[in-house]
Design a protein that fits this description.
The chain has one domain (2-175): Gcn5-related N-acetyltransferase (GNAT) (Aminopeptidase), CATH 3.40.630.30. The protein contains six helices and seven strands. The protein has helices spanning 12-20, 22-28, 34-45, 75-82, 108-123, 139-147; strands spanning 2-6, 52-58, 61-70, 91-98, 129-135, 151-157, 168-175. The relative contact order is 0.15.
């Protein structure tokens, strides 16, 4: 079972280690010095940013990170999405990574995405849709989204996290599930 908790400054050394792994560094392109990790993740850990950085745990051991935010809280990023696809009111976005190299390719990315989606629908009642932008050159990431139930709704240029990447991104979407209407019970 996957459990979650907010990233705190005490987690920064672990996060720096993950960010330095080649399979993460290729797509996240973050500096890993203590000062850089504090600069990039400290404001969210302290509650100074409206986003959330959440550590995913499997059997109590951290293995992944998900960043979750409302697109309206980040107008520049919202604008990048809006150039490629329609962005409904209440749109949320996520970004994610699997830290330990020996956890990659085991289906944990898909499980983690499904888990954060379920958590988003429960915890953020105003969330109407989750939109995710993925560099087109990262098929492992967009396949995990597809296996988790998201659908590609468009492709277009966006600023990549790694300047070495082509700007082409695929945009994936999943709408808030609707409860099945309750069927009336026929009297005997």
């Amino acid at each position: 079972m996957i459990t979650w908790r907010m990233l705190v400054p005490a987690d920064f050394p672990l996060l720096a280690q993950w960010l330095s792994h080649p399979h993460v560094a290729r797509w996240w392109n973050h500096e890993t010095s203590p000062d850089a990790v504090e600069r990039d993740f400290g404001p969210t850990a302290r509650g100074d940013e409206p986003a959330e950085d959440l550590l995913a745990h499997l059997d109590g051991v951290p293995f992944g990170l998900v960043q979750r935010s409302r697109l309206t809280d980040y107008p520049e990023y919202l604008g990048e999405f809006a150039k490629v696809v329609d962005v409904p009111e209440g749109a949320v976005t996520i970004d994610y990574l699997i830290g330990p190299a020996d956890h990659v390719g085991r289906g944990l990315g898909t499980r983690m995405i499904r888990s954060i989606l379920a958590r988003t629908w429960r915890e953020w009642p105003d969330a109407t849709v989750v939109l995710v932008a993925v560099v087109a050159a990262n098929p492992a990431s967009w396949r995990a989204l597809e296996k988790a139930g998201l659908h590609r709704i468009g492709s277009g240029p966006m600023t990549p996290d790694n300047p070495a990447d082509d700007p082409l991104h695929h945009i994936y979407r999943i709408d808030r599930p609707t409860a099945a209407p309750r069927q009336p019970v026929e009297p005997d």
